[in-house]
Amino acid sequence: KQGSMGKKYLICMPHLPILGSLPYMNFHDPAHVYFTKLKEKYGNTFAFWMGPQYSVVVNHFSAAKEVLLKKGKDFASRPRMVTTDILSGSGKGIAFSEYGPQWRMYRKLVQSSFSLLKDGSQKLEKLICQEANTLCKSLAAAQGKIQDPATDIFLASSNVICQFCFSSSWNKDDEDFEIMMDYNSLVDIFPWIQARAIGPCPALFPNKDLALLKDSVTLRNELLKKKLEIQKEKFNIDSVNNLLDALLKAKLDSDNPLVQEPEITDEHILMTVGDIFGAGVETTSTVVRWCIAFLLHHPQVGLPNCSNMHLSLSPNPYPPNTGEDNSKCLKAHGSAVCSSPISTYLIVPIPPISQGIGEYTIPKGTRIYINLWSIHHDPTQWNEPERFMPERFLDKNKDQLIIPNASYFPFGSGPRVCVGEFLARSELFLFLAWILQRFDLEVPDDGELPSLDGLSGVVFQIIPFKLKVKLRKGWREAELSA
Ligand code: HEM
């Protein structure tokens, strides 16, 4: 539509004062599916009102890349909502903080802490393999019985992050682990808590879920504070081993009046570590579960049919390690399997001043919902987008992982691209490779396959499912002879 002053605005869904488009919206479908359906009616990029908040949906990769990459800095802010303020102590940390020096500094500190894991021969890999080993032992303990792998996978994923942040890990029955599980499941649904609280007016519409979220965040913060106090006591500036150490060192350095840095307080430190847990556990553990679910539906996909097949059957504790040429094929196949289900995420950039997408005006403060699911299932870019086809991520020789087209960026793009991509990819591949090497995965005796419908969340949740694992022949024999 042509506005006054010659500005052009996007087609907008119908809307009412205060309630905006909410009365016209369907909350039965997951948001990303619903927004994808709406493109038939309103086009790839369209507007709607989330209560009193003008918002835009982007369903196509070219507009998404314009927002995230080409004009990434102009759209680099992220929404401040009641819920994100609760999570981030009013915009501290990384994921919910405004684009600026503070965000940049904490992001850099996290990035440089990853290099602590590069020490010697692939320390990160060893750390992940250690957790994969515990995971496989736990799955093996219930061998032949029906089990839901969710808690074991969540524990393994949490412990990779725990090691990165504090150089320690949890057991399944630790109280702290339970607090983190409860926290994550709540945080994952928080955008929909927000929607039900009618945009930014939860004070007018008191909401029990919001109180629950506050309680859960308080417990998480107490847990992190406890970790921080322990780390402070152990802290030695000459031996920086994990993210908390690196943040404490930066805090000491910032006390130097000659160094002009943004503020580093205990609360900033806690929120940064909280972000790494929030962004790094539910994401990876959910994708591992999606992979398993897809593999139960497509048992023929499991292991690569390549020259080093023997590797995948040998009972060697670290066989899928990277770096060796002869495991290239295994690595490519495993990574291709993981690439398929990493597809959903709503990224929500915000321009701090008025901007444009193509010829359209985007007023300052507009929430832009970049619909990665729609972009990753666009029938104009993907052949049979709904099908689980890991081979689409392999080159012609099937031994190199490729990005098949421009409509694929599961970790985002531009200045706020995921900081944990390398860790996530290593973890997904190694967890899955360990599981597939050791076990045949089977559906329970009643033949019930996992549902692939999914549930709305920040991460597209998989509905809990059950499976049976059976130790593969080579591993059973190795266990008997051990
Ligand atoms: C940001 C996806 C794992 C830490 C993001 C973004 C995406 C994403 C799409 C961009 C959001 C935006 O532009 O606002 C994923 C997926 C993962 C994963 C699909 C796993 C399968 C991880 C892990 C970590 C992590 C393991 C930490 C170790 C972060 C952080 C941000 C982020 C801190 C915020 C970056 C910023 O605002 O500057 N992630 N992520 N993620 N991710 Fe990940």
Description:
The chain is α+β, with helices and mostly antiparallel strands. The chain has one domain (4-481): Cytochrome p450. 45% of the residues lie in helices and 7% in strands. The protein has helices at 31-42, 61-70, 82-88, 101-114, 123-141, 150-166, 175-188, 190-196, 208-234, 243-254, 266-280, 282-297, 309-313, 328-339, 372-376, 421-438, 473-481, and strands spanning 45-50, 53-58, 346-347, 355-357, 360-362, 367-371, 439-442, 468-471. The strands form three sheets. A four-stranded mixed sheet has the order 1-2-6-3. Strands 4-5 form a two-stranded antiparallel sheet. Helix 5 packs antiparallel against helix 6 (150-166) and helix 6 packs antiparallel against helix 11 (266-280). The longest helix is centred in the middle third of the chain and has 27 residues, at 208-234. It starts with 30 loop residues before the first helix and ends with a helix. Residues 195-205 and 305-326 have low confidence and may be disordered. Residues 78, 94-95, 107, 275-276, 279-280, 283-284, 287, 342, 345, 347, 410-412, 416, 418-420, 423-424 line the site of protoporphyrin IX containing FE (HEM).
